[in-house]
Amino acid sequence: xxxxxxxxxxxxxxxxxxxxxxxxxxxxxxxxxxxxxxxxxxxxxxxxxxxxxxxxxxxxxxxxxxxxxxxxxxxxxxxxxxxxxxxxxxxxxxxxxxxxxxxxxxxxxxxxxxxxxxxxxxxxxxxxxxxxxxxxxxxxxxxxxxxxxxxxxxxxxxxxxxxxxxxxxxxxxxxxxxxxxxxxxxxxxxxxxxxxxxxxxxxxxxxxxxxxxxxxxxxxxxxxxxxxxxxxxxxxxxxxxxxxxxxxxxxxxxxxxxxxxxxxxxxxxxxxxxxxxxxxxxxxxxxxxxxxxxxxxxxxxxxxxxxxxxxxxxxxxxxxxxxxxxxxxxxx
Length: 332
What we know:
The protein is of the alpha+beta class.
């Protein structure tokens, strides 16, 4: 924010102008000089700050869903977090990727072009070790995947690409990302010209005790026709639209809930027995319950007490009559 001049400073400036100590032309030239900025054509800025913020929101949602997906698949805790979203030349992105990185080349039907998901070697090997049933440790020396390891890793990430499509819903209605191939040498990967601008999302990954980085590289050409939708107004409208449930879907959901089966149990009473007593139970033995016949019994829906009632017989069949409804706080 520009500095605000005090009244004394304004008076001093006007006096300097009137006395000739400060030239108005010199002030104009200085102002023109300040407007000139150095522009590097090799680092063309194709994405606005607003569009980069929209990409940040999309991938914050993506990493949340991906964390859940891989935590279940790897049977261990996995946490991902977006560090930054920036634009840079494709050549610079390739140089920044470490050797032996696992680079997943993703096709983007119905969009044209390809994206790259780059995974650091330390994270990739821990994921692979968990997929193969191991404890999740890094190898003693860095190496490339074998053919079997590549196939296992490829199948695992192919199943996870549906999460990427879900994160882009609202921007691309029916994105169907598919894994094209895996590359381990960044220098052999050419999905864009060296000077083309790409948006790179940097994501920190933590699996058990291992931390590393993951990058998503998106060439500008693949996002060019989506840029009008990457605005704050569109994202806000998409969020508000998502909160409104379609009446047809709402009715279908209510119908499914009405017909959903529930386990309802009436608990006549409870007691505690030693294992020795259980092993020596015989026909005719009586087990006393810690439940008075004068008190109502609990009726459970699932694992929660929802009603109180009294046992009885209805048309020759055992039954329970509901006498009270238990609210969420446990009162009647």
